[in-house]
């Protein structure tokens, strides 16, 4: 399982756990919340009624019949009260009053209960003891929706408990409120859960994006490229990236030195053997003409070694660079003209024609010296492999945000067996005219220049004959 999926599932699991338990508890306690909100005003009502009844009893003006008339009138009235989406149509409050012994002296809904002993009911018994008296009774013991809430208050006369006033209210309206609020609360919960899932997904992408950048960076290094360390923010991943960069440089440096010594030793071994053989022969007596031939061979091989060392030094200096140092707008027309002028003598000697086209005003930001060397190497390869009297076509065009320099020759092209190693250091093919090989560093140098400029070099055989070298540079 990928890291992003693990992070997403972990956040999702945490969200489910954190949301589900509070939500389930909230739905369980939702009815209790409504009951608590109803009990508070019932306690106020009971206390106010108990004070009013106590005042009337104290002055001898208490008459239950007056209360019956008032409540009958209230019960008979129709209400049109809309309370938060709930339509209240009648008064459903019940009042009963007991004496100090707990016997009923008034019941607003059940006058027949007058004289009944309520002293065993919790609301009455607790209130007569001076405590807060409440109870909840179900009309149907198996159905909590039939519950009635009773809240009592003491009737105090001359500091003594003279009875109890109980206010009762069925929970039917509360059930309606709960049923109406439950879908809205569920909708909010689903919305919160969906938001948590979406945020979990976004967070997983945000956390793994730098890791993907670091992975792409490592893959480019594996493919032999020289990418820049991607931006990783000020996190531990940036420290890891810097550590990888240091490790890459250390390993590449060690590997480069080993490869450098091995290849240089291998390439120098052949001309050194030729020099040594010619020098030994010079100790013998021979005609002047032959002696001059051996001396010429020594000079040729010495120059070959010198050229090899010079090119290796340039290439190693180029490979050590991480960024361009002297960046300036380079005019392609002037660059190609300068390269062709430097190749003028050899072009004339082989009778080669140049077909030259550059888009007007074409330019590219880069290092003029390095670009001159790279283009010069490409053109030199085209000259070396072109037949005498042939044509070399050079174009420079702008396409898809890049400047592409294309050099076509009429040579034999690249054999299939060596396509994968044509850019390897010291790899070279025999020139058709002389049968000799070059140092094998030219195309490797061109590739390093292209990479340093953020571009690339590509070699393709043309359909009929010849080779196309395409150097692309971002503009």
From TrEMBL:
CC per GO annotation: plasma membrane
Localisation per UniProt entry: Cell membrane
| Single GO term (MF) | phosphorelay sensor kinase activity
Q: Does the keyword Ribonucleoprotein apply?
A: no
Q: Where is the HAMP domain?
A: 205-256
Keywords on record: Cell membrane, Kinase, Membrane, Phosphoprotein, Transferase, Transmembrane, Transmembrane helix, Two-component regulatory system
Q: Where are the transmembrane segments?
A: 188-207
Recorded hits in InterPro entries, A to Z, give:
HAMP_dom (IPR003660), HATPase_C_sf (IPR036890), HATPase_dom (IPR003594), His_kinase_dom (IPR005467), HisK_dim/P_dom (IPR003661), HisK_dim/P_sf (IPR036097), Sensor-like_sf (IPR029151), Sig_transdc_His_kin-like_C (IPR004358)
Q: Which residues form the Histidine kinase domain?
A: 263-475
How does the UniProt record describe the way this protein sits in the membrane?
A: Multi-pass membrane protein
Q: What class of enzyme is it?
A: transferase
Q: Which domain of life is it from?
A: Bacteria
Q: What EC numbers are recorded for this enzyme? A: 2.7.13.3
Q: What is its main location?
A: membrane
The reaction(s) this protein catalyses = ATP + protein L-histidine = ADP + protein N-phospho-L-histidine
* NCBIfam families cross-referenced by the UniProt entry: PRK11100.1 (NF008312)
Can you say what this protein is called? histidine kinase
Q: Name its species.
A: Geotalea daltonii (strain DSM 22248 / JCM 15807 / FRC-32)
Q: Which gene encodes it?
A: creC
């Amino acid at each position: 399982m990928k890291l992003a999926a693990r992070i997403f599932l972990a956040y999702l699991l945490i969200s489910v756990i954190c949301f589900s338990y509070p939500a389930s508890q909230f739905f369980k306690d939702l009815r209790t919340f409504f009951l608590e909100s109803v009990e508070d005003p019932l306690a106020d009502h009971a206390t106010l009624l108990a004070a009013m009844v106590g005042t009337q009893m104290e002055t001898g003006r208490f008459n239950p019949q007056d209360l019956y008339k008032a409540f009958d009138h209230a019960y008979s009235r129709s209400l049109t009260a809309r309370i938060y989406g709930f339509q209240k149509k009648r008064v459903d409050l019940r009042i009963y009053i007991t004496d100090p012994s707990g016997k009923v002296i008034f019941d607003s809904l059940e006058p027949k209960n007058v004289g009944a002993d309520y002293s065993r009911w919790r609301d009455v018994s607790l209130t007569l003891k001076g405590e807060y008296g409440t109870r909840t009774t179900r009309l149907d013991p198996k159905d909590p929706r039939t519950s009635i809430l009773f809240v009592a208050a003491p009737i105090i006369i001359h500091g003594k408990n003279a009875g109890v006033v109980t206010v009762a209210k069925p929970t039917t309206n509360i059930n309606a409120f709960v049923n109406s609020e439950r879908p809205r609360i569920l909708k909010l919960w689903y919305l919160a859960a969906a938001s948590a899932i979406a945020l979990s997904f976004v967070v997983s992408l945000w956390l793994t994006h730098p890791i993907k950048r670091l992975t792409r960076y490592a893959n480019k290094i594996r493919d032999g490229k020289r990418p820049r360390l991607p931006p990783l923010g000020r996190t531990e991943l940036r420290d890891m990236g810097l550590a990888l960069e240091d490790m890459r440089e250390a390993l590449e440096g060690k590997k480069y030195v080993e490869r450098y010594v091995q290849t240089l030793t291998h390439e120098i071994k052949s001309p050194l053997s030729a020099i040594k053989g010619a020098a030994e022969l010079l100790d013998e007596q021979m005609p002047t003409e032959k002696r001059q031939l051996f001396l010429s061979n020594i000079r040729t091989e010495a120059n070959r070694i010198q050229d090899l060392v010079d090119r290796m030094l340039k290439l190693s200096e180029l490979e050590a660079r991480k960024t361009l140092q002297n960046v300036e707008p380079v005019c392609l027309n002037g660059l190609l003209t300068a390269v062709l002028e430097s190749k003028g003598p050899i072009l004339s000697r082989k009778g080669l024609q140049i077909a030259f086209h550059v888009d007007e005003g074409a330019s590219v930001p880069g290092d003029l010296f390095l670009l001159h060397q790279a283009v010069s190497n490409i053109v030199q390869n085209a000259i070396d492999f072109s037949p005498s009297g042939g044509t070399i076509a050079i174009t420079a065009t702008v396409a898809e945000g890049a400047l592409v320099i294309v050099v076509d020759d009429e040579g034999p092209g690249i054999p299939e067996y060596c396509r994968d190693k044509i850019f390897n250091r010291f790899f070279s093919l025999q020139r058709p005219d002389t049968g000799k090989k070059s140092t094998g560093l030219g195309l490797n140098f061109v590739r390093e220049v292209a990479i340093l400029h953020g571009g690339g070099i590509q070699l393709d055989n043309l359909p009929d004959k010849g080779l196309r070298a395409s150097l692309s540079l971002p503009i």
